Amino acid sequence: MLVLLGAALAFDPANTTVTSGPWTVKGQTDHAIHTHGGAPAKLDSAPFEVVLAGTTPATLEVKRVEYLRAHSCDADARFEVAEEPVASRLDVQPSEPAAQGADPAGPSWEIQPGTHLVRVAFSPVEAYYTHCDRFQLRVTFRSGEHTLTAISETLVSREEPYDPEQ
Which burial class, exposed, middle or buried, applies to 33 when counting CB atoms under 10 A from its CB (0-12, 13-18, 19+)? Predict the structure, then answer.
């Protein structure tokens, strides 16, 4: 049996919203769990709400993914780039998942006008929560002359193994 210890947050996740031309990208909060004393949680995707205004479809591509970490209970924590995982695909809802991207610059997807949940998949990174650890993914998207960089924060919780002898 495991006992889950949730992190009590004194701050809101630091997701960001950016707009350029017909595009709006808003980072969404994600969640992960690992066991205390065990392996770290593996983060391999980040969710974003993507809005394309107008009536014309457009191609959206991922240009860069940065994994950011901070060790601070402060709302304005200073995050540092820990890794730059390689983007592998975009999963767009409502739609079918995008194929694996062979382009080393990152995956792309033709987006229809409207609001979509876009999950950016990338090579896994590790997240181990001790106390006040915070984890973000900063993703740079591009469509034509529009570049948008948004942040999705992942809240990592730690579960404690249950010991009936204690």
Answer: middle
Strand partners, 33: 157
CB 62 within 8 A of CB 107: yes
| Dihedral sign computed on CA atoms, order 102, 105, 107, 108 | negative
Is the Cβ–Cβ distance between 133 and 77 less than 8 Å?
no
Supply 165's token pair.
């002898």
- Non-local CB neighbours of 161 within 8 Å, separated by 6+ positions: 2, 3, 35, 36, 37
For residue range 1-38, what is the model confidence (pLDDT) as tens digits?
444 444 444 456 778 999 999 999 999 999 988 888 88
* Residue 9 DSSP symbol: P
| Closest by CA position to 129, among listed 2, 1, 4 | 4
Tell me which residue of 38, 83, 39, 91 sits closest to 64, measured CA to CA.
Answer: 83
Q: For the segment 132-153, what is each residue's pLDDT rounded down to a tens digit? A: 888 999 999 999 999 999 999 9
d(CA 144, CA 133) in angstroms, rounded, equals 36
